[in-house]
Each structure stands twice: as structure tokens, then as C-alpha cells.
Amino acid sequence: MYVADEYNHRIQKFLRDQSTGVTVAGQVTGIANSTANTLRYPSDVFADTNGNMYITDRGNNRIQFWAKGATSGTTIAGTGK
């Protein structure tokens, strides 16, 4: 299960029967920014069947495509401003 951890500016992945998530997008430390490897108030996440994520990065007014295993995303919609 993927969770948009909005106020920690990251996406967490929880495995079955686990109570602790793993950061799969954004910074582990919860730092917000507008660079390719950070998020600002992500509000939604969709993962496709290949494990790629599409993230609504609300604070940066953009949609980020984050490939499975990537350390940064690519803006596919929005201006980032």
C-alpha cells in the first residue's frame, strides 16, 4: 500500500502486516522543496502494475512520474510554480 505522507513531504510504502513504512519518493527526512528528488505536500499517489508512481505534488502544482526504484521524479503535468 502506498500512502501520500503529506506533511512529511514524502510517499511511504507499507508491506502487508508491517506497521512501518519505507520512503519511496521524496526525502526520508521530510524536507520539502521543488527539486526532482523532493516533494511539497503530496496529496495523492497512484502506482501502476509495474510499480511506477504518479504523484500529485500539490505544494509544487505538478504531477510527478516516479519510476520504480528511482531516486527522483519527472514532472509530467503542471508548472511547478
Task: Provide a descriptive summary of the structure in words.
This protein has strands at residues 2-5, 10-13, 22-26, 42-47, 53-57, 62-66, 74-78. The radius of gyration is 11 Å and the shape is globular. The chain is mostly beta strands and 81 residues long. The strands form two sheets. Strands 4-5-6-7 form a four-stranded antiparallel β-sheet, with no helix packed on it. Strands 1-2-3 form a three-stranded antiparallel β-sheet, with no helix packed on it. The protein has a single domain (2-78), classed as Thrombin, subunit H (Beta Barrel), CATH 2.40.10. The mean pLDDT is 94.
Question: What can be said about this structure in brief?
Answer:
This protein has 81 residues and is mainly β. The chain has strands spanning 2-5, 10-13, 22-26, 42-47, 53-57, 62-66, 74-78.
Give the low-confidence spans.
none
* Fraction of residues in helix: under 10%
- CATH architecture call: Beta Barrel
Widest sheet: strand order? 4-5-6-7
CATH class: Mainly Beta
The number of helical runs is 0
Radius of gyration: 11 Å
Q: What is the strand content?
A: 35-45%
> How many domains, in number, for the residues?
1
Mean pLDDT rating: 94
Instruction: Assign an overall shape.
Output: globular
Distance between the termini: 29 Å
What structural class is derived from the secondary structure elements?
mainly beta
> Which topology does CATH recognise?
Thrombin, subunit H
Order of helices and strands: EEEEEEE
Number of strands: 7
Reported for the largest beta sheet, the result is: 4 strands, antiparallel
